[in-house]
Amino acid sequence: MTLGLINANPVVHAKKKRVARPLDDPHADDAVDPLEIYDYVRDIRDPEHPYSLEQLSVLSEESITVDEKLGRILITFTPTIQHCSMATVIGLCLREKLKDCFPAHFKVDIKVAPGSHADEEAVNKQLNDKERVAAALENPNLRQLVTECLYSSEL
Amino acid sequence: MSLVDESFELKELQVLEGHADRVWSVAWKPATGFDGVPAVLASCSGDKTVRVWEQSPSSGSFQCKAVLEETHTRTVRSCAWSPSGKLLATASFDATTAVWEHVGDDYECVSTLEGHENEVKSISWNASGSLLATCGRDKSVWIWEVLPGNEFECVSVLQGHTQDVKMVQWHPNMDILFSCSYDNTIKVWAEDGDDDWHCVQTLAEANNGHTSTVWALSFNATGDKMATCSDDLTLKIWGSDLLTIQSGNGSAPWKHICTLSGYHDRTIFSVHWSREGIIASGAADDAIRLFAEDGDGLVDEPKYHLLLKKDKAHDMDVNSVQWSSAGNRLLASASDDGTIKIWELISLAGDQKPPL
User: Which Gene Ontology terms describe the biological processes this protein takes part in (chain B) (predicted)?
Assistant: First the structure.
């Protein structure tokens, strides 16, 4: 039996030009900048394809919203296809990549873009159950997959 | 004077540091914290260890007396003392439940319960200490009989929940088991005689139940009321007829009494009802809230109100809140920030109002 990729022919986009941010920005430490967060996650490699989440349009600058006052970060991503089984893995990658990136009291919610997944509600529930996330990240196989997505160099 | 007439403050007594990862649960050891017996508390963590803390009689501060390590190979998710305090059971993501006994100055693992297919999330001892219940992500609830010589025998594997079971809790007086789950329901399990356990009631959305994962449940002292908390941002109070429960008739139905909504804006992970009737909640907004029943609510329609909200009780999510049963108004809380905090509920006399 041949195991094919679930989505064998993803649409790949060119990488967006990156804006260099001044290093001596006086407010660099205070604010949680959505574009800064985006910089951390845009190059995460898709679990199935040798492209970044940005290149596959799974993530874009608009994916990140920050409410400084409440201390909330919302990341909305768009799986490449409606029945993507890797949605939860992408969620794990996002959480793992971001875990040390902002003040401890910030809360991160991760959701699939409305209408982008057939089991939207079920996927969102799993993405935001922190006990399930913690247990998944202790699973050696998932951990390895997440590590590959986070640390493999771009092709 | 009923609780509703008093003003309270939750005073932070101590911060217990030591765990190297988030602390998931805390459990007070029974029969400690009064009559000259120092209070003892167990905590368990994502660092794979369990710590036992004891209050010093002279200084009143808690010190770490033991670290139970090198047994669980993954997160220890919850811990529970047997009613006599002789044994401590710990549930782990490594799919096992370990049972520990205090031997001299240390704790020894005297038994390991295996059977769950994956993460074990909660354990509960029945009132007499003759039964132990466990539950986990494999959607099942297991009941174990406690035999002499620290032997444990599985007497039933209960299927029924359609998702991850988050917590199990025995009724405080009767051998009736309650479980709550990621499937949004609470299930009541009773025995038909002869180890024949089955689900006698399911509290679902249609019964005024929760609309998302139910994380915890807790009984009041008399056992005729139960509080549940959920990812749906509400606390719900349920009640049953005490006499019917005590008659041993397994089908004493539980009914929804009241829903406390609008108080929490993030997931509520823990709820615990004190012997005095104060309900504590621990939530993902880093706060601890206390609720009490209104003195002038109707018998059939009691009302609950917020006694106080402790904002920023921790620097991160509060995973567990537990009142000491010693009548000393001590509350322990555990957090993602890796600490446990000991609080004392203080009554403010006369005109003193707590700072907002």
Answer: iron-sulfur cluster assembly
The ipTM of this complex is 0.94
Nearest to B182 among A104, A129, A138 (CB): A129
Whether A25 contacts chain B with CB within 8 A = no
H-helix segments, A2-139: 34-41, 87-98, 120-127, 130-138
Distance between CA B123 and CA B109 in Å, rounded?
16
**Are the beta carbons of B314 and B333 closer than 8 angstroms?**
yes
Helix axes A120-127, A87-98, angle to 10 degrees: 30
State how far the Cα of A25 lies from the Cα of B259, in Å rounded to an integer: 48
The architecture in CATH of the region B3-347 reads 7 Propeller (2.130)
Between strands A107-112 and A72-77, the pairing is parallel
Question: In whole angstroms, what is the distance from residue B107 CA to residue A39 CA?
Answer: 48
Whether residue A15 lies within 8 A of chain B, CB to CB, comes out as no
What distance in Å separates the CA atoms of residue B282 and residue B60, rounded to the nearest whole number? 25
Confirm or reject contact between B175 and chain A (CB < 8 A). no
CB pair distance less than 8 Å for A135 and B75: yes
- β-partners of residue B195 are none
Q: What angle do CA B331, B263, B279 make, to 5 degrees?
A: 30
Q: Per-residue DSSP letters for B104-164?
A: TTEEEEEEEE---SS-EEEEEE-TTSSEEEEEETTS-EEEEEEETTTEEEEEEEE---SS-
Per-residue pLDDT of chain A (155 residues; tens, 9 = 90+): 444 566 667 777 766 666 555 554 444 455 788 999 999 999 999 999 999 999 999 999 999 999 999 999 999 999 998 888 899 999 999 999 998 888 888 999 999 999 999 999 999 999 999 999 999 999 999 999 999 999 875 44
Q: What is the spatial distance between Cα B150 and Cα B166, in angstroms, rounded to a whole number?
A: 26
| Number of alpha carbons in the 13 Å side-chain half-sphere of residue B124 | 26
